[in-house]
Write a structure and sequence with these properties.
globular, Alpha-Beta Plaits, 2 domains, single chain, alpha+beta, 20% helix, 260 residues
Length: 260
């Protein structure tokens, strides 16, 4: 049986999603240990979107194969009983064998949250990015429009990115100010390593008035990471949602109201 799970986690104290060869704390390793106890056999997970160290998720989707017979409620609450508070299974459901958490995905949605004020955060220190400069959200929103569509995002990916192609299609890239918070919402068919954080870094630089609005396009066309901006903090980034064909019946739950 193949089972899909919806996962939520605070990634601030984890070394990212993917399990490492050495003994580092990752979301995948933590979840696999908990699931293996419920299944009574080793479980290997495939995720819909890998997240970096410090990055959060409200709508991560994973799948695994098992011979164990458990009610869906048992997979949810049994797994959660064996996990730390920062990681939780929100739902579980059986899926057909042709479902693949990564390759069946149609699009992924991220939100980047910036606290924009003079004083650094305390309660939200690991939940938001922080910028003391006065950011102009309207300038950022205008600059963001140059990145919508299918482009070569070489300038916006990490130098160590291992993706075969730098071409991605961005369907939506919205910037909005809400009091002291600025949110960047981006949806695409897929993302490169550090792509959202590098986009955020460029937009924040433009918002601070240090570069013209057109700079986001200039960076894009250069196809050279060395000409891009600073990679923004991981703490403001959250994987909000992964969309799949309706035939798979994957739930689309609203993200937590706080920040994401």
């Amino acid at each position: 049986m193949r089972i899909a799970l919806g996962i939520e986690y605070d990634g601030s104290r984890y070394r990212g999603w993917q399990a490492q060869r050495h003994d580092e704390r990752t979301v995948q390793a933590t979840l696999e240990r908990a699931l293996s106890k419920v299944a009574a056999h080793p479980v290997q997970l495939i995720c819909g979107g890998r997240t970096d160290a410090g990055v959060h998720a409200a709508g991560q989707v994973v799948h695994f194969d098992t011979t164990a017979q458990r009610p869906m409620r048992g997979w949810v609450f049994g797994t959660n009983a064996n996990m730390p508070s920062e990681v939780v299974v929100r739902w579980a459901q059986p899926v057909t064998d042709d479902f693949h958490a990564r390759f069946s995905a149609l699009r992924r949605a991220y939100r980047y949250v910036i606290l924009n004020r003079e004083v650094r955060p305390a309660l939200l220190a690991r939940r938001v990015s922080y910028d003391y400069r006065t950011l102009d959200a309207e300038r950022m929103a205008t600059a963001a429009q140059y990145l919508i569509g299918e482009h070569d995002f070489s300038s916006y990916r990490a130098v160590a990115c291992q993706a075969r192609s730098p071409v991605r299609s961005v369907y939506r890239l919205d910037v909005e100010r809400r009091a002291e918070f600025i949110t960047i919402d981006v949806e695409a068919n897929g993302f490169l390593h550090h792509m959202v954080r590098n986009i955020a870094g460029v937009l924040m630089t433009i918002g601070a008035g240090e570069r013209p609005v057109e700079w986001s396009r200039e960076v894009l066309l250069a196809r050279d990471r060395n000409l891009g901006g600073v990679t923004a903090s991981p703490y403001g980034l959250c994987l909000v949602r992964i969309d799949y064909p309706e035939a798979f019946g994957i739930p689309r739950l609203p993200p937590p109201a706080l920040l994401w």
